[in-house]
Amino acid sequence: MSAVRTEVGLGKHVLIVDDEAMQRDSLREMVSLYGYTVQTACNGTEALETLSKASFDVLLLDLNMPGLSGLDVIDYIATHNVGCKIVVVSGDASFESAKAALQKGAYDFLKKPYAPVELLNTMKNAAHKKDLEAAHAIIT
Questions:
Q1: For the chain, what percentages of helix, strand and coil (3-state, to nearest 5) are there?
Q2: Other C-beta atoms within 10 Å of 66: how many?
Q3: pLDDT surpasses 60 at 3
Q4: In 3D, which of 107, 22, 95 has the Cα closest to residue 61?
Q5: Separation of alpha carbons 48 and 78, rounded Å
Q6: Are strands 58-61 and 13-17 parallel, antiparallel or unpaired?
Q7: Comparing C-alpha atoms, which of 65, 59, 63, 57 is closest to residue 40?
Q8: What is the per-residue burial (b if ≥16 Cβ within 10 Å, else e) of 20-34?
């Protein structure tokens, strides 16, 4: 089973942005088990610095953080054409927050607490969509 587990995210890079250290570390450990290469950021400002230096397939993003919010990070990604898929993972599950994140360009929105299999499937689908869009861009 571990061979299958580690192949899911093989070659895929993930940035986890969450101001809660336990949440961030837990996500990092779980996602790493599935073969993803993981970096973390503890706030929006650190996320923007990391995004300016490296490319990622998937961004796991909390919305409510001090300083730059998750919505601010989404705005930066949209205006700077950063080619990653954003999966919002937030305790703020209000309709308005989810709608705003999706309208600004998030791929999906998961409410904390989430089922790990739901998160992993969402990440896999987001990375696959990114790959398809890249292949389409090459063809056209």
A1: 50, 15, 30
A2: 10
A3: no
A4: 107
A5: 12
A6: parallel
A7: 59
A8: eeebbeebbeebeeb
Cis peptide before 66 (omega within 30 of 0): no
For the entire predicted model, the pTM comes to 0.91
Domain ranges (residues) in the chain: 2-139
The domain defined by 2-139 folds into Rossmann fold (3.40.50)
pLDDT digits (tens, 9 = 90+) for 85-134: 999 999 887 899 999 999 999 999 999 999 999 999 999 999 999 999 98
List the end-to-end C-alpha distance of the chain, in Å, as a whole number.
Answer: 39
Residues whose CB falls within 8 Å of the CB of residue 126, separated by 6 or more in sequence, listed in order: 57, 58, 85, 87, 107, 108
How long is the chain?
A: 140
Tens digit of pLDDT for each residue in 17-37? 999 999 999 999 999 999 999
Place of tokens 């961004």: 59
pLDDT band at 7 (very low <50, low <70, confident <90, very high): low
